[in-house]
Amino acid sequence: DESAAPAVGELAALAAALEERGAVDEAAEALTWLGETQLQRGDTAAAAALGRALDLWRAAGDLAGAAEALRLLGLAVCRGGRPDTAVDHLEEAGALAETTGNRYLRLLCRLALAEALLARDRAEAAEAMLREQRAQELRAYLSPSASARQPRVGEASAPSAVPNQPPRGTNQVARRGLWLLIWGTAVLLGGAPLGWAGMPGASCVGL
Question: What torsion do the CA atoms of 89, 95, 100, 103 make, to the nearest 10 degrees?
């Protein structure tokens, strides 16, 4: 989509300017958005941008940022024909997401890992992982603890490591996680790569 080309150029210029100023966190975020945009367009330059974003997130000590960069980097190298490297990146991304307590990010990492496993002709392993994860999310959704009190009108929610992610500890998070796993399992096991437009909550977190 050529209409995205100006945005790519602007993001690249912004990231470079921020890094030159020493604004590490902001430069990492700009590079992550740049790499994600390039990934959506099928641009092979995505891996370079995401690799640099990962370096900056690590330098800043931001585990959630590093996990997201690794997830996107794993998808980029997988779709670039290097599924073995992708699996390594995505396993590390999942482990980092686990340490942050960000369940939605962890689920995204698992879906990306399933795509890489399928690219390595490990369909049974991918299916088993997704079905096990889906069962876990169903249990979490049905658990009484998932129905914790929702914030009252005007009451601030807990800050989120992923833009627009619903607050943890609510039934909304459990429902979104279950929905994501059901959708992702159907898409991946149907033989298609994960895409942006059809993802539940695509306005929140990209694949």
Answer: 90
Contact 57, 29 (CB under 8 A): no
| Digit-coded pLDDT (tens) for 40-60 | 999 999 999 999 999 999 999
Cα separation, 146 vs 49, whole angstroms? 37
Closest CA to 112 of 177, 68, 52: 68
Radius of gyration of the chain (CA): 17
Overall average pLDDT of the 169-191 stretch: 56
Longest Cα–Cα distance of the chain, Å, equals: 49
**Is a pLDDT exceeding 80 seen at residue 93?**
yes
Backbone angles phi, psi at 122, to 5 degrees: -115, 60
